[in-house]
Request: fold
Amino acid sequence: MREWPRSRKTDSRNQTTDRDPGTEKRQKSARDQALTLLEYADRTEQELGRKLADRGYSREEIQNTIQFLLEYRYLDDRAYAQRYVRSRGQRKSCRQLRAELEQKGIAGDLIEAALEEEPVDEEAQIRRFLEKKGYYSQEDRDSRYLCRIAGALARKGFSYEQIRKVMGQPEQCNSSDTP
Reply:
């Protein structure tokens, strides 16, 4: 197998390093691919790393590309979390937002900071859900219906305390009441 000559480059500290021209080309390709992915949608560091790995780039190429994007502020997980909470905070509970951001690879402290900066009005969301389902008061509904509604809200990530507070539902739903 033929050995290709390595080019000599200087790194950021003006030290000469041996680099393979093929490696430089793949690194540029990884950067171009990452920039193309970011043109269409915001992504977290973890999501972008996964996308590049799926396209066959090495761990080193991915790390260098992400470092490049962080330096030029093309990637910013803090800003991503803030935008995500701002855009979806009217439709999703804090618990649901937290879970989705964790799944996207956002650190817990960044998630908490974003939720503090962009407060989510979960009670208003519960009221909108109840209005959509035709719920107005618990007097005209049987306990089974109330438990179904409460269960649906709980599956959306709302706490039972908030659900009871908005619904005015003093009694606990038994698991035997729900289908």
